[in-house]
Amino acid sequence: MNAEAEGFRPVYEKILLAWYLHRASWDGQKFRLSLDDCLDWLLTRADRDSLAFLQYQFLGGRSEAFMRFLQSRLAPGQEETALRAALWERQGAPARARLAVALEQGKYPPGNRWWEETGA
Fold first, then answer.
1. Which of 72, 86, 108, 109 is the most buried (most CB within 10 A)?
2. What's the maximum distance between 2 C-alpha atoms anywhere in the chain?
3. What band does 3 get if pLDDT is binned at 50, 70 and 90?
4. Average pLDDT of the chain?
5. Following DSSP, what letter does each residue of 33-86 receive, concatenated?
6. What is the structure's pLDDT at 112?
7. Comparing C-alpha atoms, which of 98, 110, 104, 102 is closest to residue 28?
């Protein structure tokens, strides 16, 4: 199945971006935001009804292995920092307002805020 032809890529990108945002909320002891919180920031109803999201749900999407699959599918050989920045640029707009609130609430410890490096 060709992910591009099936329209998987935009949903894959949002899932992976949500995972990056979730991981950034780690404070050394626990995650301050759930992956579901971050997915809610990015996914539309249509995204949640897509085959790509169904694949995420049934293939253990929260696993590191699934996220590595997405990384390899979206940007084979690309460094994670560059991929994160590209995803933030393409798919991050819906998350910006909620991210600002999460920052005010202390959900992201300093040093984990990779999006600040992108100029966002």
1. 108
2. 42
3. low
4. 89
5. S-HHHHHHHH--HHHHTSHHHHHHHHTTTTSHHHHHHHHHHHSTT--HHHHHHH
6. 86
7. 110
pLDDT digits (tens, 9 = 90+) for 50-74: 999 998 998 877 788 889 989 999 9
The CB-side HSE value for 37 (13 A sphere, CA atoms) comes to 15
- C-alpha 67/C-alpha 54 separation (Å) is 15
Instruction: Phi first, then psi: give them for residue 31, nearest 5 degrees.
Output: -85, 135
8 A C-beta contact, residue 112 and residue 26: yes
At 83, list the tokens.
Answer: 């991929």
Choose among 119, 94, 111: nearest CA to 10. Answer: 94
pLDDT tens per residue, range 76-108 = 888 889 999 999 999 999 999 999 999 999 999
- The domain spans of the chain are 3-118
